[in-house]
Amino acid sequence: MKSAIARLREEVATGGGLKPLRVMAASGQLGYGIPDAAFNAGLARKPHLIGADMGSIDPGPYYLGAGKMAQSETMVRVDLAKCLRGARQLGIPLLVGTAGSAGAAPHLAQTLDMVRAIAREENLHFRLASISADMPRDTVKRAIRAKRVVPLGEIGELTETDVDHATHLVGQMGIEAFQRALELGADVVIAGRACDSAVFAAVPATLGYPLGPTLHMSKIIECCSLCCTPGGRDTVIGTLEGDSFVIDSMNPTRHASPMSVAAHSLYEQADPYAVREPEGTLHTRDSRYEAVDEHRTRVAGSRWEPATQLTIKIEGAMRVGERAVLLCGSADPRVIANIKSITANVEKIVRELTPPRPDKPYQIFWRVYGIDAVFPWATPPDPLPREIFIMCECIADTAEEAKAVATVTKQYLLHHGFPGRLSTAGNTAFPFTPPEVAAATAYRFNVYHVMDVDALEPFFPVHMEDL
Amino acid sequence: MRLTDIAKVVRSKNAGPTVLTLDLLFNDEAGFRLACESDSLKPDAIARLYAQPVEKIQVLAYPPALAIKVVLPRRIVSGDPGDSDVYGAQQHGPLLGIEL
């Protein structure tokens, strides 16, 4: 039997160019629920492939560090099953990128287990490709020594110790890895850490569609109907036609307008005119956005520049300690007016009562919501708020130590005496008890760098299996 | 005139864990032009609002979306101990008070 990509090759081939190619973006982040109406409307258009992104670096270092998924397992299973059924029903490839939120080995393994279980339960049969994205530590260290690694923003030079300390270390694959999986006959590709655009661009790139429009379209549809007005999370279809592409939302109430599509090029990008991928750069300075009708927008003029130097963006997170938080509020104007000095004095007492270990001292962070917890305003609000929410966070070497600090803090914050105090029975309100909560292991990103490489293939091995 | 009188979107978000981007989208060409010319949205003004050195602030007009993009370093790497906004989605507050 012919592979999925071979069937597509025959289908889109004409005497001269290529037929229009419909790329369906099922989900901007698999595992948060895929609205049925737009998904089914997408399937009814007979797309040539389904793509879904499953992760991102946005949710912070915990998921990469801990090897855990951000999404609920139940919801991931529901969404994966929906995509697998849809793709098998139409006999088209399904590509999923950044499996399990962060795309390291445990995330990929957990996602693959779910795919196998769904295939078994629903009697689905296909060739499954998995692509791992864990970076060999020795290779990264050699690259550091060869000065082939640079920081992405203000995170400092990468050291060999950082490489050792990262609990997981991944690289972002581009279209190249997906293309290898497709050429090996994959019907379904589940990839570790991947560029979100590669998920959607790999099939058209393999079939020979021009890379400028292909990458630009992929960049826009990877968040689904977020590029529409009003924005949403519904399935969209991007259609590649010659040197341009059309964005079509599968939810009739969310419209892809020239303005909303252009605005999406700004989203989460430092430079809206140049998007760097492992294999090159997408240039959108000359892109033109035109309405096809009230619901669809055509984009033309996007350009692709192949890289002279191949690069891989690498990401790693290391354990910092165990986190406990104390949660409480206050509605007392005098507590609110004095909260900075109260918390400083309470912290001083806590540090005396639970002395930090000299080798591994704990850290305390206060956040006073209503004053300056979200943004470090230069001046306090005037007037002061009627109520405040206080969160005291402790990161210590052990969960027990973090809990001890949070618990002692609770007692001394509740009963702290300060000049002018009226509410001598207690300074704070607890919505529930225990008010101190263990908040899992704390991680931080200690690798967010770009590494020059001579070839991409060795970093992203493809494994095939028949289900 | 206040920025919020002529902007239809004022948002902030990470562009990766080390960079913050602020997007201002305008209702019409006139508002976009006015904002592009305003001293209140020049790098030195943004630098004061965000307590960052001016050389680390980029302000970029993006005509296809009638948008202005501001790019600056995050105060702290996303999710590091002491961070207050992992996604960077609530760092636009100081922009809301801007007079153009």
Report on this structure:
- The complex is a heterodimer of chains A (467) and B (100).
- Chain A has 467 residues and is of the alpha+beta class.
- Helices cover 32% and strands 28% of the residues of chain A.
- Chain A has 14 helices and 19 strands.
- In chain A, a hairpin with a 2-residue loop joins strand 8 and strand 9 (244-249).
- In chain A, helix 8 (175-183) packs across helix 9 (196-207).
- In chain B, 20% of the residues lie in helices and 28% in strands.
- In chain B, a hairpin with a 4-residue loop joins strand 1 and strand 2.
Features:
heterodimer; A: 467 residues; ten-stranded mixed beta sheet; 14 helices; B: alpha+beta; four-stranded antiparallel beta sheet
Estimated share of beta-strand residues of chain A: 25-35%
Strand content of chain B: 25-35%
Order of secondary-structure elements of chain B? HEEHHEE
Q: Taking Cα atoms only, what radius of gyration of chain A do you get, to the nearest Å? A: 26 Å
Mean pLDDT value of chain B? 95
Strand order of the largest sheet of chain B: 1-2-4-3
User: Which class of secondary structure composition applies to the elements of chain A?
Assistant: alpha+beta
